[in-house]
Amino acid sequence: MVFTTKLTDAFNGQIQAEMWSSNMYLSMSVYFQDMGLTGCASWMKKQSQEEMEHAFKLIDFGIMRGGKIKISQVDAVPTEWDSPLAVLEKIYNQELLVSKCIDDLMDLAIAENDKATQEFLRWFVKEQIEEEDSAKSLLDKFNLFGSHALFYLDHELGKR
User: Can you give the pTM of this predicted structure?
Assistant: First the structure.
């Protein structure tokens, strides 16, 4: 089965979203690096790389399925953050948004009766469960311990 126009368009949109997320994490990495929190900065940079890998997976699969994959302009991401808490809240909300987008892609693959795409997207569904949990855990720790959590988080995140 060749990708439908709807699936191609949806994949192109998701690729753009993954690339935006990658840039967002990279911006957060710079923010933490400027604060001297190198562990947090390193974790954010790895998250950035992971988001770009997600875009690559979508690109490769879309091409393999005969879709007309296009790399679009990626909107600018924030370059300043009000606080570490604002960063952690944005991470969690962004992961929730990405999960919804993946769910929408899955719904479309089901509606288009494209079982190969459904199977491919299952990996992303599982990945988003992990991403949401990780983001929620960071946010919960910060909310529980306040700014004192930064030193702990910086140490822990630097181990990744």
Answer: 0.93
